[in-house]
Amino acid sequence: MSRDYFGNLPVAAGMGFARDVLLLDDCEGSFTWTPTGTGGDDVHEYLAAAAYAGTAGLHLKTRTTAAAEDDWLQVTKALSYPESGLLVLRAKIAMPAQANLKSVSLVLSEAAGTTCYLAQAKWTPGTPKVEYVDAAGDLIQIPALANKPLDTAFSTIELAIDCRAHQYLSLAINGLRADLAGLGLYNAGAETYRYSAVVLKIVASAGAPAELYASHIYVGENLEA
Question: Could you tell me if residue 3 is inside a domain?
Fold first, then answer.
């Protein structure tokens, strides 16, 4: 777990995260995400080849054997609830074999003890197409964000929401930003716990298994223009 945000000086003992940082995973340590998916032979690991910088990155692969269209794999991490009510997910992701990847989705959930709300960004690189899930649970396209990344390049993706108003704030991919302020999150139903969570999900196209590399996964309360 990286502590770069504390500065250059070493620390003598482990320190808790700064108040506004819920997760800062450089994917260098032990794998602590919760995986779920359609195949029993999926891959979820920290791997050197998946590194953005450093020695390792998060590697997801839907199967190691014969693939099927719409195979999927996701990893989830539960987090504390943001004190400010602002929740931002920012990550570096790469698609080593873009043709095999039908879509990649990033999900933020926030549950304040009564109801769980979900925000989801879905990127279909082959089309290309970028969508978000609205308050009715429908996928809505954002034409201004549609872009096709290089297989060999890491993309930056950012999703920001307002947990108190249960609304989106913005979605950004590779320097393109869409203002989603005022758009409601999807109500996923009653929830008795108070927490937030982040999900990365990939879905395979027909043919070979889908893969994703990810690194420098940040979830917190900071929002930069």
Answer: no
- 2 found inside a domain: no
Domain interval for residue 119: 20-220
Read off the pLDDT of residues 152-211 as tens digits, 9 standing for 90 and up.
899 999 999 999 999 999 999 999 999 999 999 999 999 999 999 999 999 999 778 999
Both tokens assigned to 19 = 């108040």
Cis peptide bond upstream of 10, omega within 30:
no
What average pLDDT score do residues 84-107 get?
Answer: 94
CATH of the domain at 103: 2.60.120.200
State both tokens at 96: 């080593």
What is the three-class DSSP state of 36? strand
99: left (phi over 0), alpha (psi -120 to 50) or beta: alpha
Q: Is residue 13 domain-resident?
A: no
46-82 per-position pLDDT tens digit: 999 999 999 999 999 999 888 889 999 999 999 999 9
**Alpha-carbon distances of 217 from 77, 186, 209, 214, 222, rounded to whole Å:** 11, 23, 23, 7, 14
Give the number of domains in the chain: 1
At 99 the three-state DSSP class reads helix
Q: Which two tokens stand for residue 85?
A: 């009510």
Residue 1: inside a domain: no
